Every structure is written in C-alpha cells, then in structure tokens.
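Board notes (copied after class):
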Amino acid sequence: MINQNLIVDSNTQIKTAMIKLSKSAKKCLIVLNNEKELIGTLTDGDIRRAFLKGKNFNSSINNIYKKNPIKLLKEKIKVKNVKSLMVKNKIDFLPIVNNKNKFLSFITWDQLEKKNKIKNKKLKNTSIVIMAGGKGTRLM
C-alpha cells in the first residue's frame, strides 16, 4: 500500500504539498488524476522555484509540478536499467506505472542501495579461489 502522504492532485495547495513532503520524508510527491493515472511529480525544488516566481502558500501546484515525469513501466524493471535511468537523469525517485499509466509504486535510490548491500552480504560468505603460478618474470 502506498503512503497517502506521497499522493496529491493537481489542485493541491503548495502549503498542503509542503506538509506532505515533510511527513513522508521523501524528496518527491506523486501527482495523480481522478483515475489514479500518473500526471506528474512535485519536488521541494519545484516549490522553491515557485516561491521565487512569486507564488504563495495558497497557490495551487497546478502550474509548478513536473508534467510527463520520467517513469518506469512495471514490465521493464531491472535493477541495472533502473540505476542507469536514475543516474542519467539525476533523480532519486522513480514512479512505476502499468501500460495504462496507472500509478503502481515507486523506487528510490535508497531502496536500490539496500538491495546492493543485501547482495554484497550474500557474497561475503562465498568461498573464492585465486589461482596463481609461474616465475613472475612478466610483471617482475
């Protein structure tokens, strides 16, 4: 189940979005329409830029959230692809949608790092054999 503090609609006030960002401890909110389709993402950086342009706490996020965000289809989830997509686009938060653009979940950089640590722990208990031999004349 997705934390509802991560979900907003396009008519949400900036103040409400800031409160949700603070409660969720994530760097991004998901903007959904009435059909639960992904229509955008909103970061604290988007809000800061809106304030610099003269918006106030009571303004709607409608014109400040990122429309057409970078997203991942559920069918194409592979850790290698996710990492490269996140690094290439300098993002920490990647929404996952189905083929009808319905929001399903998300992946954060922290989640990817946890998976790497788990894989590395599994390798610590693996026996390794290093085979070496010869006179050492080539490398001295």
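Comment from the instructor: The chain has four helices and seven strands. The mean pLDDT is 84.
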